[in-house]
Amino acid sequence: MRLLQNLFLIALLTTVISCSKKEPETATIIEPHRPQFHFSPPAKWMNDPNGMVYYNGEYHLFYQHYPDSTMWGPMHWGHAVSKDLIHWEHLPIALYPDSLGYIFSGSAVVDANNTAGFQSGNEKPLVAIFTYDKQGYETQAIAFSNDKGHTWTKYENNPVIKNPGEKDFRDPKVFWHVESEHWIMSLAVANRIQFFRSKNLKDWELTGEFGREHGNHGGVWECPDLFQLPVTGTTETRWVLLVSINPGSPNGGSGTQYFIGNFDGKTFTSEHGPSTERFIDYGRDNYAGVTWGNAPDGRTIFLGWMSNWNYAQVVPTETWRSAMTLPRDLSLHNTSAGIRLVSTPSKEVEQLRTERKDITVDQPFIHTGLAEVKVEFDLNETAAKDFGIELFNSKNENIRIGYDRESNWFYIDRTNPGKKEFSTDFVGIQYAPRFSDSHILTLHIFVDVASVELFADGGVSCMTAIFFPTEDFTQLKIYGDGEVKLLSTEAYELKSIW
Ligand code: FRU
Question: Please, where are the H alpha helices in 108-223?
Fold first, then answer.
């Protein structure tokens, strides 16, 4: 029945797509592996989130998009808006490639004081800052919108930053720096981040660089983001620099590291030693993530691309490829291991909950395939050395999200996830360090039909992993190789956004 329903919907969707080429779809989508509460493009290829900016009650999400294929190709900026970060309205493509190149990743700002002079009506102009890539020759360019970000015009004198002779020179992320009264751009340049500043978004001056000798250099540096956060519970603040790297992340392929330190208006300095490596998410499937500009209430809201360049182009989905992570609020916390960047699911995610269900060690949780579960284990009373939460189906496929006491690592075990032949890099166990030394250990997970996100110890250790079972994982149980003692459990079936 479900199969027939799916086939019918695929046929319906294919008809809609072929009738309205390049226009966004709004169809109900129940295809195999189609995320039910994560953002995914209506059709075809998607990678990085781009141009995330909040204006006039709308969260804009642009994304790397190739509308003619389910593989990467000439990049466009796809576009969607949301009022609540969960339900998305798909809009027409915002930026098309042209003679200067493909439209690579970048950001967008609200130019509240019309510093670039693009304003033509009563709305504040929105300005997008992006990379043009012409067969590997990369420059930075801008475009503007005077209708609340809905349609875009490229600036006539692009590019605004020419290529200085660097092969990898991309992914500008811009914000207004109040103290120095400048726009600041972080730009990934091969193995480091360069900082530029501008008064008008058109004329840019290079002011500093960071990272040749810091952090992980297993791959090229991409998609930086720089923002300031309070250290929770203190009067201190720190600057955080996100840097995506591909390949070279701890579990293979793509990943996003972060540095904590200071920004003086010109450059960033890290407060960790050069060899320190920290990742915002240790799972294999959270890449190129950045934060929303102009987010309300001073929030720092992050979204990542839920895939990995090792296999993104071959995952077994038919009409589209990839999804984004859940939106996550970022904060800094003092832990027993020092200050750490913490990710927690944004509060808007709670609207997906339906009634609260029970889960115990003896009683598995049977659900529709969409679930949120939070379990607190008491390490003082737990004899098991290896324990966690298992997702499984009637085909003996499973995913284990657990903790190994001896190594003090969290893990996601994806050795038996269902479909896996598409890439040898897909299967296996991925690990994340535990930073907390509390005897209360929390596993908080969100299960969609093709992904799980783990926020362990309140989001100090995070992992994201996608999967493609041959039948949805509608069952979930707590396991251990000995006795486990639970302090509390919370379980919800979640609603689909379609
Ligand atoms: C990251 C990335 C960016 C680039 C874009 C191209 O995934 O490689 O550096 O701008 O994708 O699609």
Answer: none
Q: What number does the ligand 1 atom closest to the CA of 64 have?
A: 12
Exposure string (b/e) for 135-159, b if CB count within 10 Å is 16 or more? eeebbbbbbbbbebbbebebbeebb
Is residue 209 packed enough to be buried (19+ CB in 10 Å), middle (13-18) or exposed (0-12)?
Answer: middle
pTM of the model: 0.94
For the Cβ of 170 lying below 6 angstroms from any atom of ligand 1, the answer is yes
Domains of the chain: 5-345 (2.115.10.20), 351-494 (2.60.120.560)
Q: 107 CB contacts (<8 Å, ≥6 apart)? A: 50, 51, 52, 53, 128, 129, 130, 172, 173, 174, 290, 293
Pocket-testing residue among 64, 135, 193, 254, ligand 1, by greatest number of atoms within 8 A of Cβ: 64
CA distance 272 to 278: 10
What whole-number distance in Å separates Cα of residue 224 and Cα of residue 242?
5
Of the CA atoms within 13 Å of residue 107, those in its CB half-sphere come to 31
Query: Is pLDDT of 446 > 50?
Result: yes
User: Three-state DSSP class for 12?
Assistant: helix
Given ligand 1 and candidates 62, 72, 75, 104, which is best to mutate, with the most ligand atoms within 8 Å of its CB?
Answer: 104
Q: How far, in Å, CA of 463 to CA of 283, rounded?
A: 4
pLDDT single digits (tens) 395-428: 999 999 999 999 999 999 999 999 999 999 999 9
Q: Is the pLDDT of residue 8 over 70?
A: no
Cα-to-centroid distance, 377 and ligand 1 (Å): 39
